[in-house]
Structure formats: C-alpha cells, structure tokens
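Lay summary. Proteins are chains of building blocks that fold into shapes, and those shapes determine what they do. In this project we predict the shape from the chain. Here is one chain we studied, written as its sequence of building blocks.
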Amino acid sequence: MSGAAKVLITARGVAASAAALAHLRAAGCEVVVREPPTPLSEEWLLEQTRDAAGLIFAMEPVSARLIAAAAALKVIARPAVGYDTVDIAACTARRIPVTLAVGTNHESVADFTLALLLAAARGLPEAAAATQRHEWLRCIGTEVWGKSLTLIGLGRIGRAVARRARGFEMRVRAVTRSPDAEFAARHGLEYVALEEGLRLADFVSLHAPLTSATQRMINAQTLGWMKSGAYLINTARGGLIDEAALAAAVRDGRLAGAAVDVLEEEGAHSHSPLLGVPGIVVTPHMATFSREAMERAALAAADSVVQVLQGRRPAHVVNPAVYES
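And here is the predicted shape, written in a compact code that computers can read:
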C-alpha cells in the first residue's frame, strides 16, 4: 500500500479500540474518526468520505450517491453482520468490497436474547422501575423452564440461542432454509415450517436476515398463528415485524408480551408503535454491545480494511463478484 490511505471510522466501537486503531496505523493508514451528527445528514457523510480509501461505519446509509462521490473509496467494512443500509449494487459496480465482522458477536447477541426473553417473561423492567419509585410491585410472570421455543433463522446467533435454551430444558424448534441434521441431533432440536413453529411456541425468537422475502414476515396473519399468551423476541432486524400489528396483539392480550432490541425506525426520536406499550420491552439495538464482542468486531473490521488496501481478499465479503475477473 503506497502513501497514507485515509480510513474514515464512524463506528464508535472501532473508534474506542486501541488495538484496531493501532493495526490500521501500523499498516500505514491515516485514521480519521468522526462522530456522525444527529440527525444524520447525507451531505455530512458525503463530505467525510469524499477522499477516504476505507470506511468503517455503524449503520449510516451508504447510498449510490455516496459511492459515486467517494472516488478514492476501495473498501467498506461493517463491524457487525448487518448491511441493509448499504447499496450493494452500487458498491459492486465500483468494485468496492463490503466486508462483515462475521463470527464476532453471535455469543453476545445470544446472551442478550435470553436476557430479553427472561425480562419479558418475568416482568423485570416493570418491577425494577417500580422499585426505583419506592413502590413494591411484584409482577407475576411465567417460567421459561420446560417451555417451547421456536427460532426463526438458525445461523450463528440462532444456534447459540438454541444451545443456551437447552440449559433451561426448553423444547427447541427452528425454522430455517438450511436444516442441519447433525446440529439438530446433537442439541435436541426439531425443524418445522413457519406456521407450525409459530403455533407450537411459547416463545418465538427472530434471527433471520432482513430481505425482500422476510420483510414484515411477522404480521397480523402470522401473529394470529401464535399461541394465546406467547411471547415474541427480536434481536435481528426491526423490519421483520409489522410493528403496528405486534403492538395491537400485545395491547389486546392475544400475546403475553414482546421484547425487541431493534426497530424499523431507530434512534431517540423513533415513532415506533412498539414504544410505550405495556408488556413490550424495547432496548436500543445493544445486543452486540459487550466489551468482548465489540473488541473482536473492531479488530475484524480493521483487519479487513488493511487486507483490501494491501491487495488481499478478506474472509467475509458481501459482494464477492468484485473479485471476479
């Protein structure tokens, strides 16, 4: 890599990793850390990336317009596994690889999924908030032990949740396009179709990617398949759920509750219909925010940028067509 290639970092976790920054600088990169404004302005991002060779971003929209304006851009790295805010076609047309930090956060997200499931089942947020107000509210919840859990999606995170759920002696089922008989046999898991999985579950946990096929897969119809008194957990993507339909199902008592770490519209000024609904726990997209996972992801993102700028191919590329001759 000749000269000092500018690498723009807007992801806080990477900016806070001394090891990741040192790795980039040791490779001869000029590291530039910027805090995105609130609300985010595309013009701001266009200006920041105009002369950048590498971009390590959080979830800012990386549009075709930005790709066209960033003439020096050679690599985009995401210190996580979601990339639905990136115009992949535009990146591929410019032969810009988009890399992911695969295998760095699934244990952290699985931990958090179980935390949300338990919080929803036992009414922990309401009880804790009431105690802080000097009230003594003992919420009557439901046991998780021995209950039925359906996982929608069985990638790294779904599998990690399945392993943990067996510790609660839950009956685990999974909806997936790629059933793995060996994993199922080893962990006592059963594969089912979506409708059957929803009808049988006491708890449903979403771990599917957001695509045109999965957009709002949890809607009025599919919520209607769920057991009365069941719970829905989502640590994947907000767009998997018709939020108005879920809010209505909990408010009307058809579902016992829900817990989500992701919304269609995120941020402090979100207008999500899930906010303020009794029985729905909402957290601010923080499932991956453990110290260990963030450090692993930061190092993986930094290393993928270094590899691309040094003419090598990183391990986890969203658009491998950029390497086709």
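What the prediction tells us: The mean pLDDT is 96.
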